[in-house]
Design goal:
This is HflK protein. It holds the Pfam family Band_7. 56% of the residues lie in helices and 17% in strands. By secondary structure, the chain is α+β, with helices and mostly antiparallel strands. Among the domains are: 40 residues, no CATH class; 104 residues, 2-Layer Sandwich (Tetrahydropterin Synthase, Chain A), CATH 3.30.479; 86 residues, no CATH class. The strands form 4 sheets. Strands 3-2-5 form a 3-stranded antiparallel β-sheet, with no helix packed on it. Strands 6-7-8 form a 3-stranded antiparallel β-sheet. Strands 1-4 form a two-stranded antiparallel ribbon. α2 crosses α3, α8 runs antiparallel to α9 and α9 packs across α11. It starts with a helix and ends with a helix.
Amino acid sequence: MRKQDDRQDGLNARSGKQEMAWNEPGGNGDNNGDKDPWGSNRGNRGNQGPPDLDEVFKNLQKKFGSLFGGKGGGRSGGNGVSAGGFGLGIGIVIVILLGFWLVSGFYKVEEAERGVVFRFGKHVDTTQKGLHWHIPSPIERVEKVDVTKVYTIPLNSTMLTQDENIVDILGTVQYRIDSAEKYLFSVRSPEISLSQVTESALRQSIGRSKMDYVITEGRGEISIQVKGIIQEIVNNYGTGLTIFKVNIQNAKPPEAVKDAFDDVTQAREDEERFKNEAEAYRNEVLPKARGASARMREEADAYKNEVIARAEGEADRFTQLLKEYKKAPKITRERLYLDMMESVLSNSSKIMVDIEGGNNLLYLPLDKLMERSNSTDATSQKRAAADILRDIKQRGANKSNQRARIDGLRSRGAR
């Protein structure tokens, strides 16, 4: 080292330059002299040199002390006061920040929610409704889960039926979160898992059904089957989901064969319409036919009862008449004859009488006689007709007696 210094001094001497230390006492403080390479003039010291680190720290301490309420005094007592003010300010800031940090740990859980508390990513607690507090982030965090809201995922799939036809299915699946812990921890993405499970269950149910059944009346039953399959699978996975409803809104064939299936559907609808019309006609005709049948039965029963009653009455009358005939045969015959003639001739307005043994035909204009009668009662007409018949019969009897008398006389004369 000493040889290198001697060599350097020799080089400086040759070049005519003379080196001087920075803080050498030879400096006179003029403007043309050498300056402090740190770029600062020490006017009060008269010497140039590197800055004092203690002085730099003291200046910074003064500035922070004045910022937090400290007073910058002289060099003798100012340093202690500035250090105390700086420490007090830092403490106040720390307390305020700590207070804000602690207050940020309060959170509120609504009635429809559950609060899941994580500590360094691990589940430590599940809170119910109300105001709660947890250790603020980054130590703990809270995730709120709505357990009453009904969520919906869409369905849009192309399925193969049992009869090897393709059908497009459109619908939705509605579900609720039953357990917040299982929902967050059991499955990485519950919605995606539920969508995949739904498609699998729907494919299973559609694959067991024919296309006509799927696109017509089978959608309701298929929805019930799919719901049961989905619920069983998500329960096995422990997803914490409850399937609320499966809606199959539309089941239709692909666009390429849509026209042909529309014709089939229209024919099926026409068939159903004709069945409904026939059913309506049957419901209209059958009651009328039943009513007519009941009326005819009642009329037949009434006629039967009437005929039976009339026959019984005729039989009773014949029995009574037989008794009278046995008592007086001639009188009974006359009475029967008169009753029959009255019954036969009661509706006749003209009567022609052929009197036995006479050449004249007796004509009785009953209509003219009835016109002259003051009474128009039917009973009076019958009585008048009976009187006339009785008179005619009496005349005939007289003629017969007269003829018998003549015949008797003739027979006697012949003897």
